[in-house]
Amino acid sequence: MPGRDPLIRLTVNGQTHALRLPGTTPLLAVLRNDLGLNGPKFGCGIGECGSCTVLVDGVAARACVLHLADVAGHSVTTLEGLGGPEALHPVQAAFVEMAGAQCGYCLNGMIMTTAALLDANPDPSEAEIREALRYNLCRCGTHVEILAAVRLAVDRSRR
Question: Does the global pTM surpass 0.90?
Answer without folding.
Answer: yes
